[in-house]
Design goal:
Radius of gyration: 21 Å
Number of helices: 4
Low-confidence stretches: 1-8
Number of domains: 2
Number of strands: 9
Order of helices and strands: EEHEEEEHEHHEE
CATH architecture of the largest domain: Orthogonal Bundle
Mean pLDDT: 82
Structural class: alpha+beta
Strand order of the largest sheet: 3-4-5-6
Strand content: 15-25%
Oligomer: single chain
Length: 144
């Protein structure tokens, strides 16, 4: 390999003809690794916390054995936060992780989803899984 530069997520490289086999082997490793990562993400086992189970591939949530019916965005917000327990996220970070559009009001949209998720969970559990971190955003605390 003569030249390798990294710019964000793009890697540029030039290979000599004699290195063609090496290039094919490197590409095969990348392809195989990408397929494995995607399938692991797609078919991830359930995420379990005390009284709460989330099945990513089925988009299903249970609290104390009762199925909770969440909208697409409610599920995506809950899943995003639950994947990173105790990590604090701003409203903007949550929005960017879940929505694809350009926001009119990030704060209002995220707050509305959090309120709705909490309300649905409260019907089946006393736990407050999603905690407000005043002045910053939200965190998922499985012990709360």
């Amino acid at each position: 390999m003569k030249d390798g530069r990294r710019n964000g997520k793009v890697i540029l490289a030039t290979f000599e003809e004699s290195e063609e086999q090496l290039l094919q082997e490197v590409l095969a490793v990348f392809r195989n690794n990408l397929v494995i990562q995607k399938s692991e993400q797609l078919y991830a086992k359930e995420i379990n916390f005390t009284g709460l189970s989330i099945w990513q591939s089925q988009r299903k949530v249970q609290a104390n054995g009762n199925e909770i019916y969440l909208s697409r965005f409610e599920f995506d917000v809950l899943l995003f936060l639950a994947k990173y327990p105790r990590q604090v996220f701003t409203r903007k970070q949550i929005y960017e992780a879940v929505w694809d559009d350009i926001p009119v009001s990030v704060d209002a949209k995220v707050e509305c989803m959090i309120y709705s998720i909490r309300k649905k969970l409260r019907a089946y559990t006393d736990r407050q899984y999603i905690q407000t971190v005043w002045g910053v955003g939200y965190t998922f605390d499985p012990a709360a």
